[in-house]
Amino acid sequence: MSDDNLRSNINIQDSADSVVQTAQQGNVIEAHRLWSEFHATEPLAVREAYDRLIALQINEANIENYQQLDPNMRTQLSFSKDSPRIPSEDEMSALTNDQKFDVYNGITRLRGNASAVNALDDNDRVILGLRNENQTTANAGRGVYDDRIIVLWQDNDGAKHIEEFNRATTEPTAQYDAHYRNDTSIKSRAPSGVDINADGTLDMGRLRDDNTITMRATTHARPGGQGDNFSLRPTNEFIRDHGTGLVERDVNGDGWFDSQDIGGIVDLNNTFKIHAGSRNSTDSAGCQTIHRDDYDRFITAVNPEGSIQTEWQYVLSSTAEISHVDRVLDNTEREEVISPLSLNTGNETVDLLLANLENSKDNPFGFNLDVMMTVAETKEGKEFTDNLNQGVEEVKIAEASLKVEQNLQVKNKESGIEIG
Ligand SMILES: [Ca+2]
Ligand SMILES: [Ca+2]
User: In this structure, which ligand is nearest to the CA of 319?
Assistant: First the structure.
């Protein structure tokens, strides 16, 4: 694509809506043609947003002949629901205001929970965090502003608004981690955290991504020490009713939050705020922070003068380096593996289980079940479908599906296609 094509004024939402309407009218051939044409001409960030806005509206449940829709298109739409790529600042600045909104609106609706979707529908100001994962020791433990926080909302007349904060973090820094107190490469500050494994060392925490947190107004010390700023923290009601398992702690102190941290998944408390960070340190011991020079703009975006909003939905999403568009199998590969299987197995229990697994953020497949089914003609895939047909228990389905995933990875390694 030439540079001339990087700027496009197309209305992404309208374009997505017309594909959805065409498919709903039963014309899956024309829906695919429109979709292909769009993907042939628009810049990547626009194409990604387009897929998400389509995927939000169509699936096998609400399109009668969904299974007749082009399989590549179905796969790509399924992938668009996964962790999004963060479009670069250059890509975003080439977009119109409404296109920017459409990019983040789709992500927020797909990655957030029902409260986030309702808040957007009610024209509340909603906060989206896109986490680009770093080790806590990055930048000598002072942190890096390489995540993105966005405030988005619509007016009652439908006008779309977004404010982007490109100097932001959603991750804590080793300067507050008690494990690094004697590490000369980290300039330590007072340790923060909770001692999860009772070894006498505090374990630093962060919000788990792919969750939505309900927040309320509070204050936080302004960096540099001149008074307090407006800030946000989780509401007590949310912590009580929905806070279970929303925090993870770096129990082994290696600077990463993963399965090596035994007992590391714990409940939310109200210390996980959104506040301003310093110029040379993100000042995050688990909070989401925004560079102090951008922070006044953040306050104006979330809580302008005269605002009556008292709660804010904060959607924190994981992100992927590779665009979902580039993860799609090519035609040759798909012809080999495509099968006529649909998600509807006719077994009520299994169908419900599959639907739950597909919707689950913890699904064992690592990618969308729809794609799993398209590789079901492999040896392991047959095992998977045999299990389905016999209506076996969840654990067996999960085991079989993992084998299919491994098989797909091997296949793709052989064919040089990057996936997942
Ligand atoms: Ca980061
Ligand atoms: Ca760790």
Answer: 1
Residue pointed to by tokens 């398992």 = 245
Tokens matching residue 280: 């040379």
Report the separation in Å between the CA atom of 147 and the middle of ligand 2, taken as the mean of its atom positions: 20
* 404 alpha carbon – ligand 2 mean position (Å): 29
Query: Is the Cβ–Cβ distance between 193 and 285 less than 8 Å?
Result: yes
Kindly give the distance from the C-alpha atom of residue 382 to the centroid of ligand 2, in angstroms, as a whole number.
37
How far does residue 130's CA lie from ligand 1's centre (Å)?
9
369 with 363: CB under 8 angstroms? yes
| Cα 343–Cα 344–Cα 345 angle in degrees, nearest 5 | 105
Q: Determine the Cα angle at 342 with ends 17 and 112, to 5°.
A: 50
Per-residue pLDDT 10s for the chain (420 aa) are 444 445 789 999 999 999 999 999 999 999 999 999 999 999 999 999 999 999 999 988 888 888 899 988 999 999 999 999 999 999 999 999 999 999 999 999 999 999 999 999 999 999 999 999 999 999 999 999 999 999 999 999 999 999 999 999 999 999 999 999 999 999 999 999 999 999 999 999 999 999 999 999 999 999 988 899 999 999 999 999 999 999 999 999 999 999 999 999 999 999 999 999 999 999 999 999 999 999 999 999 999 999 999 999 999 999 999 999 988 754 434 433 332 233 455 555 445 545 555 544 444 444 345 444 444 445 555 565 565 555 555 544 555 555 555 555 554 554 444 333
* Residues near ion ligand 1 (Cβ under 5 Å): 132, 134, 146-147, 171
Residue 56 CA, ligand 1 centroid: distance in Å: 27
Q: At what angle do helices 28-41 and 44-55 cross, to 10 degrees?
A: 150
Burial class (CB in 10 A: 0-12, 13-18, 19+), 58: buried
